[in-house]
Amino acid sequence: AAGLLIQRIPAMGEANLSGTAATRAEEDQLGHNEDFNRIAMLASSLKREELLELDADTILHRLFWQEKLMRFLPGEGAPAPRFSCTCSRERVAGMLQGLGVEEVESVLAERGEVEVGCDFCGMKYRFDAVDAARLFLSRQQQPPGSSQVQ
Fold first, then answer.
1. Domain count for the chain
2. Which pTM does this prediction carry?
């Protein structure tokens, strides 16, 4: 997987934080939209194969060779950006608890199990009737050693 993020930075910088930023119309008159649109148009010419096969420096040079580039480079020892997902069975269990026992039982009656898929990483979490019942037991009712969802 690969991607390219092009982000328009507000023209007024710190003025945006203080509430004295220019209105959108004022920023547009400064020509910033024209610059952003040109950069976006250049980026849209990138082919899928190039994005997947070429390194970042080559892509940047091919697309923006006439532009002044400012690129974020992490400091020495800093981790590089990476793909990661924070989903877990426990988080999904919490979400199901938030839906409530009636909703979960309705899905169980209709499908025999509750399946939740993560759109970010593709992981699928399945809860059968026993798993679902455990979600709604109070801590005192759970057998010893079963505080985590299995």
1. 2
2. 0.46
